[in-house]
Design a protein that fits this description.
355 residues, Type Iii Antifreeze Protein Isoform Hplc 12, 13 helices, eight-stranded parallel β-sheet, alpha/beta, two-stranded antiparallel ribbon
Length: 355
């Protein structure tokens, strides 16, 4: 299956005159399959049917991602577990064979397969399964790991949650040495992210500071706030990543701030309306304006009755609708002309009646 995301990143060309386009949408399933292969397949089917361009999982082992005393960084009122190691231990059962199965299912449903690796081993075997790598916000300062992923010479998405510009610049430098294309994703590393903390304006800052890179947005706001994604699209985000689940009512992990199939379908409809309303990016009158263009504009009319031979003054002329005659911009050329006939108030001025 040809990677649309790889092509999008590789062929990106920055322009100040750039049309808003439908973003490439990644349904971030993460580990919301809860290590159930049938649920994982359902997530793929739901994402594909709702119009996502790709579905992304996460690949890790608890022992290599977090120490046993690692504290939480999520909303513990939603996810009760307070240890990273303990939480990751619940969802680290999928490995190479499971992702090979899911890759095949993605091919069947014609949706691009992605998974974020969190260690060297998974990064290696995922190379055979995908054309684009995703680097988590948590690894933006992990130079050895970034360089290892770069060694596969594939395009990269890198999230920037909790990072400053100098850290992004440094990571961009590590990737840049390998001469591969990469996309920078605006992200707030906060689950869930409140609207007041979304800081979508940072998308524009990333575009200005990294003009050679495609800029995207990884969203952690609640699914009820999907207008955030519409705004990000208007700001020029070309890739949108949003957590995805089969059941938003499930407790814990990433279910509570994820979209489901219906949400994603609704988002697609909103994007349809957005792009339809944006229309052309070149200003001109359209076919549906042809009648208003004439009837709502003005022409020059006689403002009073004037006898034949009279000389027109400014007070003799008024601009009224419709615009079927001499336009108001020609007023100065009409003043001082002599009438060949009697003029009647509210009559359209005609050049053939003037000397």
């Amino acid at each position: 299956m040809k990677s649309e995301l790889s092509s999008l990143i590789k062929n990106f060309k920055n322009s100040h005159y750039e049309q808003i386009q439908r973003p490439f949408i990644i349904a971030e399933a993460g580990v919301n399959h809860e290590c159930n292969i049938d649920l994982a397949k359902k997530l793929i089917e739901d994402a594909a049917n709702a119009g996502a361009n790709a579905i992304k999982f996460q690949t890790y082992k608890a022992d290599t991602i977090a120490s046993k005393n690692s504290p939480s960084y999520w909303d513990t009122s939603k996810e009760k577990i307070k240890s990273q190691h303990e939480l990751f231990s619940k969802y680290d059962k999928f490995w190479k064979s499971e992702f090979e199965i899911l890759k095949k299912v993605c091919e069947d449903f014609k949706i691009e397969f992605l998974s974020t690796p969190f260690d060297f081993e998974s990064a290696k075997f995922l190379n055979d399964l995908m054309e684009v790598y995703k680097i988590s916000s948590s690894d933006i300062t992990n130079k050895p790991f970034i360089e290892y992923i770069c060694s596969f010479k594939k395009p990269i998405l890198i999230s920037t949650g909790a990072s400053n510009v100098d850290e992004i610049t440094e990571a961009a430098g590590w990737i840049g040495k390998f001469k591969i294309k990469f996309s920078i994703m605006h992200c707030i590393l906060n689950y869930p992210t409140e609207i007041k903390n979304a800081n979508l304006g940072m998308i524009k800052d990333l575009q200005n500071k990294f003009p050679k890179n495609l800029i995207g947005y990884s969203d952690h706001t609640l699914p009820s706030q999907m207008e955030n994604i519409i705004t990000a699209t208007l700001l020029g985000a070309k890739v949108i990543e949003k957590h995805f689940t089969h059941d938003k009512t499930l407790p814990g992990n990433d279910h509570y701030h994820a979209m489901d199939r219906d949400d994603l379908y609704l988002l697609q409809k909103k994007l349809d309306l957005l792009l339809e309303s944006l229309g052309s990016f070149e200003k001109e009158s359209i076919k549906e304006e042809e009648i208003p263009r004439t009837n709502a504009r003005r022409s020059l009319y006689y403002n009073k009755n004037i006898n034949k031979g009279g000389v027109l003054t400014k007070n003799d002329i008024i601009a009224k609708r419709p615009g079927t005659g001499i336009g108001p911009k020609e007023l100065d050329s009409i003043i001082g002309k002599k009438l060949k006939k009697n003029a009647i108030e509210d009559e359209l001025i005609d050049q053939k009646d003037l000397i």
